[in-house]
Amino acid sequence: MFSTFKMLALVGATGTLVACGETDLERTGTGAVIGGAAAAVTGENVVNGALIGGAVGAVSCSVAPGAPNCI
Q: What are the Cα distances from residue 68, in Å, to 1, 21, 24, 35, 57?
């Protein structure tokens, strides 16, 4: 259970960082890299971390349209 909480916290942090891109594709890529790296650091499955991070990046401007770089 603690591992899941740790992963969700990192995904939340990833959500704030995925604004590092001008397009949805760039934000998806940034989210995937950050999510995969966070999963590797915490000992979680890297592929799952990358998928979750990429998904967060892909929807970041849909969820927070006023975020930086959201056009």
A: 33, 9, 13, 20, 13
